[in-house]
Amino acid sequence: MSESVVTETVAAGVMQITMNRPDRKNALDRASYAGLIAALAAAEADASIRAVLLTGAGGCFTSGNDIKDFAIAAASGEGPRIAIDFLTAISTARKPIVAAVEGFAVGIGTTMLLHCDLAFAGEGATFRLPFVTLGLSPEGGSSYLLPLVAGAKKAAELLMLGEAFGTEAAMQAGLLNAVVSQGTALDHALGKAKALAALPPESMALTKRLLKRGTDNAVAETIAIEAHHLGERLRSPEAMAAFAAFLKR
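^ thats the sequence. predicted structure below, dont judge the formating
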């Protein structure tokens, strides 16, 4: 497992997956994505694991893609493939996933919450979908799912303006189940994950499958379409200029 992703069984039936690059605010590079994909696959394959707890180290969820690594991948022609593979893995996971958010949840750090079954954030957490700001386009099925949970106008505001927003707006947009005291999101999410893990697993799996039945095909199609456009945008002059400006900071 990648050192940038740490897994551990933290309670009976609960695997915790921690994004672990605190010096980079848990920015996701290709090694991180590979670690996340492997961790989700391990949870799916282990019959003793009944719920997944997803969080970030150092009081931060994730600041999104590691822009330097993303730029290298784009220049090499690799594009966003491994990030899309992760989004496919989390969007098709059969076991319940509970997210615990503190600090920053930027870009894919926000869109992955659309695929978590439950999500809790500490007060003061900050969310952002800066795709247009970076000359890119939405990913993770967000152009389909966000209007469903937030409404068309709010989704347009969040995806088109790309401005940072707080926990109250995240609650209103349907990204969170609850906001808790700062620093307690992980404990609160762990309690919910333990409750899920204690319930009949076959019934839990069926309930999750039924909840996603009406949207799973559309989500898969949207992730694929978004990936195509994102790959093109990564090679665009707008994105290259935005990345260069970001890396000069």
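The chain has one domain: 5-185.
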